[in-house]
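Appendix B, Record 12. Input sequence as logged:
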Amino acid sequence: MANAPPHYAWLWDVAMSNEEFDAILAGQITRGAFDTNWALVRLIEYAPWRELKCRLPRQLFVAHWPAIRNRVRSAACREGMEFVYARWHGQL
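Logged structural output:
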């Protein structure tokens, strides 16, 4: 996004650049406990829907959702992502 802030708003408590988050999300790098699963959960829980739609990697999400679904704390958020998973996984 052309006018992206220096750090994504959902990384308020983590010293990490947007580029590093994107690389972790894509599975290109890990940094300690910060791995693709962490990045997916962080994105799902804290990013606005507009950002989530743009940044959620479809194949990675479909591959990782069964392992991370229970890490998403909000029931409403989990239900919404279950719908996305079913749709992308070809179940709907």
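Residues 17-88 form one domain.
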